[in-house]
Amino acid sequence: MRNIVQIIRNKRDGKTLTRDDIKFFIHGCTTGKIPSYQIAALLMTIYYQGMTFDETAHLMRAMMLSGSTMDLSGIRAPKIDKHSTGGVGDKVSLILAPLVASCGVCVPMISGRGLGHTGGTLDKLESIPGFNTQLSSKRITKQLQRIGVVMIGQTREIAPADKLLYALRDVTATVDSIPLIAASIMSKKLAEDLNGLVLDVKYGTGAFMRDHGAAKELAWTMVQIGKRARVKVTAMLTDMNNPLGTYVGNALEAMEAIEALKGNGSQDLMDITYALGAEMLALARIKGGRTLLVNKITSGAALDVFKKIICAQDGDALVCEDYSRLPIAKNKASVRSHASGFVHSIDTYRIGMLLVQLGGGRMKEDDTIDPSCGFRVFKKIGDRIKTGEALVEIYSDNRIAREAVKKKMKEVFAVKSQPFRKKKLIREILS
Ligand code: URA
Questions:
Q1: Within this chain, do residues 43 and 188 fall inside the same structural domain, yes or no?
Q2: CA 416 – CA 305 distance, rounded (Å)
Q3: Does residue 396 contact residue 402 with C-beta atoms inside 8 Å?
Q4: Whose CA is nearest to atom 6 of ligand 1?
Q5: Is the CB of 118 under 6 A from ligand 1?
Q6: What is the structure's pLDDT at 114?
Q7: Which of 4, 136, 314, 344 is the most exposed place for a label (fewest CB within 10 A)?
Q8: How many other C-beta atoms are found inside a 10 Å radius of the C-beta of residue 119?
Q9: Ligand 1 mean position to 350 CA, how many Å?
Q10: Does 429 reside within a domain?
Q11: Over 80: is that where the pLDDT of 365 sits?
């Protein structure tokens, strides 16, 4: 007879857990038979001892099977999704989902909310008045059949074990464990009945993984998990030492995504979007790559799909023509450089946390957020700047918060006199 104390002891002593041990553990979590102090103890031993690849794959599968999986067998188009490990200013999903769907790919995109310094796609979408990210299974399938794309949140039925474990990891300092992150992300993504998945694994000051080596290990683990589940997975390792694009903050990023769909996206944002999109097309075996994607932006086809998504999900699609319908703060304050020279570093994590301080992000899952606040970022690493030039513009209708954040924002940028070379945005692609 298996028991959880023995499983914890085995892991503590460096032994390898079997598939049945892991199934027993996950079953015990979701049925409430294992109390949270024993779950937390096992999570901490995993944090310190790590997991073999087999253990990680067993954990992912048990978590995926802890709930129901989507059945999209009635849809003939290739089903491909994208997932980002999270960053600051990362609004790529808002552009990518309609863009790739306009090329004939079915995109059942399930996204998350922002937590800590990282933003979340759902919060950005919900800044569009009326936008509904919680659809029934029937509505999801109907929308996928009709327009080929949905942008929704995780339902209660998908990977419930992950929800439970993530909440405990959050309060026991066990989030940043590669096997736990890989199993968590892949258990949700593989429940979507996908043919392929493209991962944007970020590293740098604004990412979960600061270090490129750790990000690569995470990417490799997720690619191998996909392979074992017979789902094609490609991972791109991308630099998150700068905020991505120009704006940070929910409604501001929704506006920026719409501008990108109109052909006015910044180079860094579009480079990542096109690179991820081309990988999604390749997994779907659709020819055309970046050229096709660029055509879908210039012809307006991608923007049309985005408007259809907004309408289908109860939102106000007129925001695409009239940004005053978005809840964007009316009051702004500029942060200016005290020195001339070149930007050598940006503490992008701090920018994410300053958004939380303004009210635009959350520290706990049930915190409410203010979608109207955020930042416009004028300078990135390597850019030249003169004394008095603006580094950042702060959007907030709360004067006290705006002034407090303004003081702290000055410390985020390191400006030095000697030139500094920009780093490559896309470092590696693993598949
Ligand atoms: N995102 C997830 O979905 N899970 C993790 O463990 C970390 C980031």
A1: no
A2: 44
A3: yes
A4: 181
A5: no
A6: 87
A7: 136
A8: 32
A9: 20
A10: no
A11: no
Q: What mean pLDDT value characterizes the chain? A: 96
Considering the domain architecture, whether residues 8 and 123 belong to the same structural domain is answered as no
CATH code at position 178: 3.40.1030.10
C-alpha 406/C-alpha 401 separation (Å) is 8
C-alpha 158 to ligand 1 mean position (Å)? 14
| CATH number of the domain residue 408 falls in | 3.90.1170.30
Assess if residue 63 is contained within a domain.
no
pLDDT at 314 over 80: yes
What's the pLDDT band for 208 if we cut at 50, 70, 90? confident
Ligand 1, atom 5, lies closest to the CA of 181
Query: 431 in a domain, yes or no?
Result: no
The pLDDT score that the predictor gives to residue 195 is: 96
Instruction: Determine the distance separating the centroid of ligand 1 and the alpha carbon of 406, expressed in angstroms.
Output: 31
Give the CATH number for residue 21.
1.20.970.10
Element (H or E) spanning 196, and its range? strand 196-203
Q: What is the pLDDT of residues 1-59, one digit of tens each?
A: 789 999 999 999 999 999 999 999 999 999 999 999 999 999 999 999 999 999 999 99
73-94 tens-digit pLDDT? 999 999 999 999 999 999 999 9
Task: Read off the amino acid at residue 329.
Answer: A
Which residue in this structure is represented by tokens 């027993």?
A: 24
* CB of 394 closer than 6 angstroms to any ligand 1 atom: no
**Residues whose CB falls within 8 Å of the CB of residue 22, separated by 6 or more in sequence, listed in order:** 55, 58, 59, 62
pTM score above 0.85: yes
Q: Write out the residue range of the structural domain in which residue 347 sits.
A: 327-416
On whether both 301 and 404 belong to a single domain, the answer is: no
Measured from the CB, is residue 181 less than 6 Å from ligand 1?
yes
CA 282, 284, 287 angle in degrees (round to 5)? 55
Residues 165 and 227 in one domain: yes
Q: Is the distance from the beta carbon of residue 110 to the nearest atom of ligand 1 less than 6 Å?
A: no
Buried b (16+ CB within 10 A) or exposed e, 391-403: bbebbbbbeebbe
